[in-house]
Amino acid sequence: MTDHEMIYIYDGSFDGFLCCVFDSYANKEVLTAIYRDEDFIPTLFASRMIDTDKKHANRVFRKVAQVSPYAGNLLHKGFLTCMPEKEIHLYRLVVKLLREGPGFLRNFSDETLFPVISAVRHLNGEAHLLKGFVRFSELGGVLGSEIEPKNRVLPVLRSHFCARYMNDTFFIYDRTHKEALFYAAGKAVIRPLEDFQMAPPDEAEANYRILWKRFYDTIAIKERYNPKCRMRNMPKRYWGTMTEFQDEAYFKPQSSPAAVPGPGAPDEIPAPATLQEYGQSVPGSDS
Questions:
Q1: What whole-number distance in Å separates Cα of residue 128 and Cα of residue 147?
Q2: Exposed (0-12), middle (13-18) or buried (19+): which is 168, by Cβ within 10 Å?
Q3: Residues near 205 by Cβ (< 8 Å), separated by ≥ 6?
Q4: Are strands 47-49 and 5-10 parallel, antiparallel or unpaired?
């Protein structure tokens, strides 16, 4: 490569990113930044829009995986993370891999590897938590749920939930990234979904929600109430999509005029709100 520096703009897809790597080598250019087209702000520095070519993308990924299968997995998962400026970090990882070989991948403190592997660990950790935090509702024979993750976890969660609910039809909507995982008859796809609002529950589903909330409240032990421990094991940012942390409107059946989508938990409550009309609840559990 020469010292000719350039900013690339691409369509935001993984294949598009790989094409940025391909073109940087083909044009002998060193990339100083890579932006999605919707995020790019015009600048005085030299920039170029990169077209996505599946053949070019495949050539780059095959080469990376040939040098190191681990690096190929790291590259794919790294692209799903919420790491700031992830494209340029991943680009530098590929450049170093092709220039020096895979030896540096054993050194987790390496300045090129460290930000990527840290971001992938965060992605994997969030996906692991969501395996337990996803709450499904039954909507006319389809199981539906919503999540609000920092990372694009749906590709990581797909195999887990498809295996767990292989005989069901379900979807998981990612509010953050405006996309949804759909599964039916043994086939799963992830598609962009800009606007979505969960339908209110029918009477049977509303009763199941009430039972789950009552169970959550009932198993709590007042003497062991420990909000810090609970938030350490169940971070507060996940509460907004969890049944046990919703207010009364979330438990109203469709036939009720008060039926509206359930909002997130209020900021300062120590435990889920008590539904007085369905019986007394005890304080929230620490686990």
A1: 13
A2: middle
A3: 137, 138, 139, 253
A4: parallel
Element (H, E) at 191: strand 187-192
Q: Write down the pTM of the prediction.
A: 0.83
Tell me the residue type at 167: N
Phi-psi category of residue 206: left, alpha or beta, with phi > 0 → left and psi -120 to 50 → alpha: alpha
Distance CA 49, CA 39 (A): 13
Residue pLDDT, tens place only, 217-268: 888 888 888 888 888 888 999 999 999 999 989 999 876 554 444 444 434 3
Write out pLDDT tens, residues 3-56. Answer: 589 999 999 999 999 999 999 999 999 999 999 988 887 777 889 999 999 999
Q: What Cα–Cα distance (Å) separates residue 43 from each residue in 17, 46, 49, 86? A: 20, 8, 13, 20
CB within 8 Å of 34: residues ≥ 6 apart: 7, 8, 9, 10, 17, 20, 87, 88, 91
Contact indicator for 114, 108 with CB cutoff of 8 Å: yes
